[in-house]
Amino acid sequence: MAPSSRDMQLIGKYLDGQPAPEELADLQQRLREAPDAAEAFAAAARMDAWLAGHFREEKGARDVAAVFREVEAGRPAAARQPGAAPRWRSLKVWAAAAVVVLVCGAGLWLYLGGLPGTSHQVLDGRVMTGGAEATVIPQGARIRVADSAPAVIRLTDGSRATLEASSVAVLHGRAAGRRQLVELDAGGGTFQVAKAKGDFEVKTPLGRVTALGTEFSVRILAGNERGKESDREAGGRRALAVAVASGTVQVEFAGQTHTLQAGDSRVFTHEAEKKARVVQCSGLLTAVEASAITVAVKKGERAAAETQTIAVDKDTKVLMETDQMESVPGEGGKMKQRPKVAEGTPADFKVGRQVTVAYTEDGPKAVKVLIHRPAPPRLNKDTERERRE
Amino acid sequence: MQGRDDFLKTLLAHEADLRAFIGSLVRDLHARDDVFQEVAVALWQQAEQYDAARSFGAWARGIAANKILQRRHQDQRFPVVFSPETIQAVLDAFDRTEETAPGRHDALAECLKRLPLEPRRLLAMRYEEGLGVDQIAERVNRTVDAVYRALSRIRAALEACIRRRLAVQQEKP
Fold this sequence. Notes:
The complex is a heterodimer.
Chain A: H1 5-16, H2 21-33, H3 35-59, H4 64-73, H5 88-104, H6 106-114, E1 119-124, E2 127-129, E3 132-133, E4 136-138, E5 141-145, E6 151-154, E7 160-163, E8 168-175, E9 178-186, E10 188-192, E11 200-203, E12 207-211, E13 215-221, H7 231-234, E14 239-246, E15 248-253, E16 256-261, E17 265-268, H8 270-274, E18 278-288, E19 292-297, E20 306-311, E21 317-329, E22 335-343, E23 354-360, E24 365-371, H9 381-388
Parallel strand pairs in A: 9-11, 21-24
Antiparallel strand pairs in A: 1-4, 1-6, 2-3, 2-5, 5-8, 6-7, 7-10, 8-9, 10-13, 11-12, 12-15, 13-14, 14-17, 15-16, 18-19, 18-23, 19-20, 21-22, 23-24
Helix pairs in contact in A: 1-2, 1-3, 2-3, 4-5
Chain B: H1 4-13, H2 15-25, H3 29-45, H4 56-74, H5 84-96, H6 104-114, H7 117-128, H8 133-140, H9 144-171
């Protein structure tokens, strides 16, 4: 008899999460009493383990085999290409190393325990530090990847950095309150961040990228790379390109924090910040604070007003309509009348005044605020009838 | 067994299955690694006692089950939720369905490559990022039950794909 869909559901819940106590009891009973359910459980568990192993290998997780391999060879392990090396090799080395453990005992374990936190390991490619090629990089060392090919480095927290050829970086390790700090001065790289407590930060001259348990790429684009990548966005200056493969990262750039999700990529430039799109809205001022104003905007006669809070600062230009009128050319060359405008200050912001605000869409921050003069009081129908009578 | 080399080869051929068995009972990643290390060292130490006429996989899993029961008995917080009777039932099921066909790992890698983007993303979130089902549900804007069902379906589809590929390989001369 084939396992029921209920069996499969219980197995899935057990393997993927936290089954409720009654579901767990149900699953245990099925495993004990129904051989088909137990065999389906074994098949699903095998698949679960293979998938976990596969993704762990792809991610380059540090495993016991790699540690032993390094100890045996006296050098860091070579990078494992997905699908290239048969999985059995790892246990071969592991088993061989088990002999070493039996012989050396606790001393070796202590050595292994201390290994991950002390230095970065070059897994693939050529890395120069202090004028010489190195396979083990002490924390805080400045490195340069050789021109010919990228380098793969396992960092002290188990994360993996694939740095492009000619990249220059300082691998700080645990520093500045971060569990891993990489200072990227030139070039770029992809970072597969191991799951652990604390932030993983890539600091560049242009901005910072912070992540936790994710994979992302960072590249410093020089001016001469405009033709190759994001020409319009980079705008001829150095720019920071960030792409996120999985998880979430925070990018601090030009004093602002941006969050990028899996699948997002963006080029950050100072020029792009300055050229942020300016849009305009008109409405009633409903709140005035030292650094922001709130405007109630009605998009249509019957539409409900939407409030929008817009930052203001010393750079915001404030203009006020006066009671004086001036003639200006209108449509079709005809002259039309409009109120004269004078310069104002943020102190002129008063709740209840009608304003038109030009503001940067990304922010938003007010570039210019025009305070309209108060409209003449409108008479309602009763008042008008009384006046006529 | 003839010698350490033969023993090593046999051990290597069963590594994945042994890890799967331990992982099916011990759901905590670190604890299962600890158990695997203990079992591997125990197997190595007891290599001389192994009778080549018997199934190596069954012998190794038996030692693993004993280690798990031992740990469970010594430490009530040890992350095993199954009773000894259920552990025995799982052990029997693994013995009945033992598979050591070569090429499964490569077949899985090929099948994963052919998986559409969305299921692959779900698997990456579950196995690479280590997210819980509730976190995945939130991220992909689906219900928790829908994610459970999707993961079960994906695993079943991969299992079917692997079987197809292995069958084709076996037919080749």
